[in-house]
Specification:
This protein is α/β, with parallel strands linked by helices. 58% of the residues lie in helices and 12% in strands. It contains 13 helices and eight strands. The chain has helices at 6-40, 54-64, 87-100, 111-114, 145-157, 167-207, 217-224, 230-237, 252-258, 264-286, 298-310, 314-326, 331-344, and strands at residues 46-51, 78-84, 102-103, 109-110, 125-131, 134-144, 243-245, 293-295. Strands 1, 2, 3, 4, 5 and 6 form a six-stranded mixed sheet that branches. Strands 7-8 form a two-stranded parallel sheet. Helix 1 crosses helix 3 (87-100), helix 9 (252-258) runs antiparallel to helix 12 (314-326) and helix 10 (264-286) crosses helix 11 (298-310). The N and C termini lie far apart (94 Å). The relative contact order is 0.07.
Length: 351
Amino acid sequence: MNNLDPHCQAILEEYRQAKPACDDAAVKVKATLEKVFKKSGLIVAAIESRVKTEESLAGKLELKGSKYASLADITDIVGVRVITFYIDDVDKVASAVERLFKVDWENSVDKRKIHEIDSFGYMSLHYICSMDGFPYRFEIQMRTVLQHAWANMNHDTGYKSGVEIPLEYRRSLSRLSGLLELADEQFSEIRADLADYRRRIQALVASGNLSEVPLDGDSFRSFLNTRPFDPLNRRIASMNQAEIQEVSLMGYLEVFKMLQCKTLGDLDKIIKDNSEGAFQLACYQIGLTDLDIISSSIGPQDLCIAYIVKVGGGKAGLKMLLDIINGVSDTNNMMAEILFEQTSNLPFMNQ
């Protein structure tokens, strides 16, 4: 700091006076972004904020202090960085920033547009912003996780320090830059493709073309949204005028895969062919009780039990079912024997 001329010393003193307000502004900008992202459902990897340290500012002033008339001319005293998972989310963040703050377009930089194929520079979007109640401009950087990784690697290799890097290492860094850029693009493309796939699956399920839909997590979730087990559950509940308590049925995806269901059509066939057997089993289990609350899982569970016994899966198949539903336990052996005895003599077994 002893190398600073009186003009730079005056800017540094202004910084000391403004530091508390800058700290508050950094917190406020970060909190504002977090609130808006949460409300909109936009998930980002991280939001970082910082106020330039006195040491860092002094170094900047020592190098080019003459270009600044006052502290207000330095646009990165307060800095916020938003790190996204996907390229297209950078534009969503930018849109939010534009609505929340006044953007100084003349001094803002979109490094994504000036990025050259042989450059080492990381691609990111830098907005210089201002807001009511704070007299200084501040910088908001927006980039992806991989762009952030590239920036940090650049820093660690010493490239940012201006030290000349041998050609062989420059080539390696260029290749790495290209790989990271390709990965960034691929992640976004895969997300978009998955979104299209989910929409197609939802449309096929809604249209009833279940035999064309592979059984997986997305398709099973869409299938559950059609409430396929409700008729059976309501029929079972009507025996005791019981209330149906809703629980998640996603755990039955593994069960139906164990039963060799490849498509939603296979699953739908199990429901249609075994609903009567499942109802008979439920009658045997709770028909003479005063049970007034049943779980929404009773329908799919009894469907699977009826199917396993009907196709000859026996006690071993029932134990596999119970191991998936309840977790592996020695108790499942005893329960499988009881269920096998209960179902073996029910009318549906002779149909």
